[in-house]
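User: Now give one protein:

AI:
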Amino acid sequence: MLLLQLVVWSLYTMSLSNRYYKRLQLNSEALDAEATIAKLQRITEAHLRRIPFENLAQHGASGGPATLDMEKTANKILDRYRGGFCFELNGLVASFLDELGYTVTRVPSVVYKENFDDIATHMILIVKAVDNQLYFVDVGFGEPALHPLRYDQFDIVQETPEGMQNKLVRDGDAVILYWYKSEQWLPRLKWSYKDSMLGADGNDLSAFSKALALVHDKSSIFSQKIVVTLLTRDEKLTLAGNRLKTTFKRFPEDKVTLSVRNLGDEKDTREILQDRFGIPLSETEGLDLRRSLAAKPEIWAHMYRAIC
């Protein structure tokens, strides 16, 4: 049995890069051979364009609940063309980056809602490239920065290609990520600087099992309402329940335009998931909108600043 497990794991790791590049529609031969920041930028931007942030598994979609098992997660995201949320998306891309020669630290972080509580329900990545520089990476947020952020530049504004202004601020052991929104600097995430310096042997995926259980709980907002997002430089596409919103030219805010469409039943929603988010119809046969439609319309409102 152990031998079989080792063989399966070997096949998973050997094929992960090829499967990932195919999913991202990237030609690996056109990218740097080494683990450079330019290559990392291409990967994160393609990831946010191609692989949706989504919680459909908690609303009847195929495959059962989210898991920290990266073999199962790879099958879901790379082979079945689904998305996921932070533990799945950042967990899997961390394995991919490991294979490409980056050094990756998986870091528990706290999402800002009305304030910061003490429960870390998100995962961010600190990635070391071939230049030995550290970068903040997050492809598992509803609206993260499109490119990695330099992790040595605290208190300095870093603007990413879509126009988002970001700032990392260190306060003792705490590191807080801010973005410039509504003409002010608003907090988004907080984590321990010490945890971010642990290196590849620091936080393994088992450290996130308690947080995953909280996300699966029936009281979690993930269990109450569907949310699906994709990002490009010019557009954010969001499905919340059965409401499809397209945001154009997100930055600067005075240039933003919106398109909002209320969908019908599960059939209409499944078709949108296939046509706009690339999720096959076979993956959403059991989709159930009842909890989403019963939820308060503003349930995700406080998270538009930071959807995890």
User: Anything to note?
Assistant: Residues 302-308 have pLDDT under 50 and may be disordered.
